[in-house]
Write a structure and sequence with these properties.
Helices cover 83% and strands 0% of the residues. By secondary structure, the protein is mainly α. The longest helix is centred in the middle third of the chain and has 33 residues, at 132-164. The protein is globular, with a radius of gyration of 17 Å.
Amino acid sequence: MIFMLLAALLPAFFLAFYIWRKDPVAEPVQWLIRAFLMGVAICLPVAFFENFVSRLLFPSGAPVTLIGTTVQAFLVAAVPEEAAKLLALFLILRKNPWFDEHFDGIVYAVYVGLGFAALENVAYVLSAGDQWVTVAAMRALLAVPGHYGFAILMGYYYSMYHFVEPSFANGLKVFLAPVLAHGVYDSLAMSGAVDPVAGGISFFVLIYFCIKFQKLAHKKVVALASSEK
């Protein structure tokens, strides 16, 4: 059990430490813990809401077509999860006196996202049975970095809206950018459940997408980290 928990939690803790080290002016630890725990707190309510939406959209069970898995990816997973993360981020930042630099948006968004990813990862790994090592490894390489990347997009545009230009377009990007990335990721990951051939192709597309997406996320981190120096 200890090894399972470590395998589930270490990827999130590693990325949290990485983004903390990237911050030119480190945020107070208590505020980072709050953000992380806020991400943990929203995980269970989001899971119940996703189950409710899934039953509405697919009353007979899981989707059986690629269109169905795409709908599930966006409406059951991406939209509720990113909406909850954005609400958590707003609650953390609205009266935070330390939210005073561009990079802070990324830091707090990442801690919320990784809190969510950590608890989600624990649930997946503990429920995987004898396959927990494979599940933990795949999620460490794909799912947890995925949540990390979605959070970077959210935090980047949150700071752009707050510090640079509070325009409708930037406000929209705060939500739509992570939802789009999350929806594409889940669409590719879920396709194998209904079509093995499409799933095999999608797996390689998913790997390519994740590599390109992490490069994009890294550019956002470097851009805002450099602006604070």
